[in-house]
């Protein structure tokens, strides 16, 4: 199961090709609505005010409402790109932004805007993952969901999954939403930005998905999650907290009733243990901010850069559906690989006598 995207933030459209989807899955344009709205800009005052319709057109791979097994082409037209000439922006480099490395690598600046480095690209990852999520849920009862786990220094004081979808931050503590609103409002007014942590939990992943050495489930998750714009860290289960743990604290003891904890994040030796798969990402603060910062221009001369435009004070606020998407895309790929090698879940692989399996 592979996905590739195309399109620029200020081009006419963005799109993706999804290859390897099993045939027979019911897919309609309205299936994409909920997750695309969860990710979209302009849905609250706490994100970029660009207002995109994000209407998906299914170009191929679906016939009479069902996937055919051939490549699925999805297209979303950009409707609010406001492609005025940002030439001034292309004469300098925003500190902390990819425009510095893109320029040194390609030698071309797109005066229309962020182009491929824009978070606009993640729209198509979320769209592709709608297909993955649906197949995983229907075929195996797997549910992939996420939440914001930290913004700046703020962490939830209590946890309630039911609260996550009731606020624009995907925040699991309903008592703190007003505090978050005040915090993000103050940041935006100050022209600054902040980082965040997002956690994704996949329930119902059957034991066995994943590869033991190359293509480990955790390695694939790390790679996929790290490919999201602004991600600077990935943790599986206890992650870096494992550094300070002892073996007795970290190991997840096993009883006939099941595991007693989940520090492993549902993955042992690169293979799903049957526990919830838990992955977290650290997102850096948005680099496009109003507070001037030192940089250089194309001639290498010192300049002050201040970025105006419709930017997010915290990219992490919209990152929950994107992180869920990358986890779902990895899981469907691992599910298909596992099925190809070992057969389907429930189709118990032959156990060699004495193997204690
Ligand atoms: C983004 C900058 C803004 C955001 C954009 C992400 O857009 P523009 O390219 O118009 O300045 O609005 O997000 C989206 C359009 C989207 O759909 O996520 C950036 O620099 O990453």
From TrEMBL:
Pathway linked to the protein: Metabolic intermediate biosynthesis; chorismate biosynthesis; chorismate from D-erythrose 4-phosphate and phosphoenolpyruvate: step 7/7
A GO term from the CC aspect: cytosol
Function noted in UniProt: This reaction introduces a second double bond into the aromatic ring system.
Origin species: Dokdonella koreensis DS-123
InterPro entries: Chorismate_synth, Chorismate_synth_AroC_sf, Chorismate_synthase_CS
Molecular function via GO: chorismate synthase activity; FMN binding
Cofactor note: Reduced FMN (FMNH(2)).
Record keywords: Amino-acid biosynthesis, Aromatic amino acid biosynthesis, FAD, Flavoprotein, FMN, Lyase, NADP
Catalytic activity, as annotated: 5-O-(1-carboxyvinyl)-3-phosphoshikimate = chorismate + phosphate
UniProt-annotated binding residues for NADP(+): 39, 45
Protein family per UniProt: Belongs to the chorismate synthase family.
GO aspect biological process, one term: chorismate biosynthetic process
Cofactor(s) the record lists: FMNH2
Cited Pfam families: Chorismate_synt (PF01264)
Residues reported to bind FMN: 116-118, 229-230, 269, 284-288, 310
Designated name of the protein: Chorismate synthase
